[in-house]
Amino acid sequence: TSAQIGVTGLAVMGRNLARNFARNGYSVAVHNRTVSRTRALVEEFGHEGAFVAAETAKDFVAALERPRRLVVMVKAGEPTDAVIEEFAPLLEPGDMIIDGGNAHFADTRRRERELREHGIHFVGTGISGGEEGALHGPSIMPGGSVESYGSLGPMLEKISAKAADGAPCVTHVGPDGAGHFVKMVHNGIEYADMQLIGEAYQLLRDVAGYSPAQIADIFRTWNTGRLDSYLIEITAEVLSHVDAGGKPFVDVVVDQAEQKGTGRWTVQIALDLGVPVSGIAEAVFARSLSGHAALREASRGLAGPKPTPLAESEAAAFADRVEQALYASKIVSYTQGFHEIAAGSEEYGWDIDLGEVASIWRGGCIIRAAFLDRIRTAYDARSDLPSLLSDETFAREIAAAQDDWREVLVAATRQGVPTPGFAAALAYYDALRAERLPAALTQGQRDFFGAHTYRRVDREGAFHTLWGGDRSEVPA
Ligand code: NBP
């Protein structure tokens, strides 16, 4: 028997992805380091399709039709290299290794380069949607060669999520590490979305005085409008959940958020590329701050206002303002994330189509949302859009939201409710709008202490002022 595709690494993601291929009519070879997982998969789900269980790497490779398509779904990092080392010597030119793990795109670039020398296509592929997505249709972000996509694309299109208009949520993102880069930024945006939702919740709780169940209803209402998204939907589910003792679930969970690293990478790489992703950075820092239990404990007694909830009559109007603030901040997060993708694409020569990225995030992935269709439309109308904020529709929406956005931040500041995401987003917006920034003063300081020179608004060239002397200006 020859299988059309193989999956090695059969933990939750790999198992469900293999089942997804099988349910879509593909014959799938399955393999896992620990053989019991392979056996369990075939025993439990063998009836779903054509599986070929392989216990050794050699059998696995032998089971695949050529050119071979070998999907690796193991823990990112060293395990991925170990698996490549094990399988690459068994492969032939033209074969493909598809890494569906959450690899760092720099690792993907290295692996792609190394395997290309042996004629093997290494396809770093971002996959989003968690276990459910892997089974029912994830959003898939493959990088690698155009040639590999020709062979692999139709299969991925079949198993992927479909957007509301039926378009598959997969595209060839770009060469080598482009797919994993885009997946990384997807996760960064996901962090920002979650942080903004968290801030909205906290404001509705502390400033508006609503209970978790009432806030769940508010989110449900928001989910019927422009904020319609998976994350808003599950937020309502989490907020309305009560534990076995009848307490709101959100009140009994330790308030320390964990992270696996893709949000942090998004910020690290943005720093390297010089892209201001302040909203995403605040989201990563907010998780980090929440985890500093001792520091928080030591700081509990610090002075500050205690939030006093609004009168019931004012709460609903405030909730509407929070919706505006959340929406405006969300536009800024996506603006920043897409800027990072554009910058990465430029730096690495990937030629990424930003409209296509928005398009394949419309379904399957964690940030799936009606909103992404609007982003796609914006880039389709103008592929050289300098920023999402330059899109007329988004600019108009922010213009309409901004008074409320500012009011919400005033209330948050006055009442001492931390809103780093909302605040960073507004500061970014105001900084971009500003006629003049204090960066001119920064340049003066740099020239003063380090003779770093500056440019003038009224003349070409670089200049230096003799700060320690007669303060005359000299050309640099
Ligand atoms: P894990 O990330 O928990 O990895 C477990 C798998 O890796 C098992 O199959 C294990 O084999 C295998 N493995 C390890 Br660990 N070291 C190995 C080695 N040296 N050689 C061969 N195999 C090795 O599984 P997961 O949660 O299913 O995630 C798989 C990938 O998908 C990860 O890269 C993850 O970041 C990514 N991802 C996960 C999600 C999600 O929602 N979980 C979403 C999107 C992407 P064993 O059975 O023999 O120990």
Map the helices and strands.
Layout: E1 5-8, H1 12-23, E2 28-31, H2 35-45, E3 51-53, H3 57-62, E4 69-72, H4 78-87, E5 96-99, H5 105-116, E6 121-128, H6 130-136, E7 139-142, H7 146-159, H8 178-206, H9 212-222, H10 230-240, H11 249-252, H12 262-273, H13 278-291, H14 293-299, H15 312-348, H16 354-360, H17 371-381, H18 392-415, H19 420-433, H20 439-450, E8 454-455, E9 462-465, E10 473-475
Parallel strand pairs: 1-2, 1-4, 2-3, 4-5, 5-6
Antiparallel strand pairs: 6-7, 8-9, 9-10
Helix pairs in contact: 1-6, 8-12, 8-13, 8-15, 9-10, 12-13, 13-19, 15-18, 15-19, 16-17
Nicotinamide 8-bromo-adenine dinucleotide phosphate binds next to helix 1, helix 4, strand 6 and helix 6.
Pathway: Carbohydrate degradation; pentose phosphate pathway; D-ribulose 5-phosphate from D-glucose 6-phosphate (oxidative stage): step 3/3
Function: Catalyzes the oxidative decarboxylation of 6-phosphogluconate to ribulose 5-phosphate and CO(2), with concomitant reduction of NADP to NADPH.
GO molecular function: NADP binding; phosphogluconate dehydrogenase (decarboxylating) activity
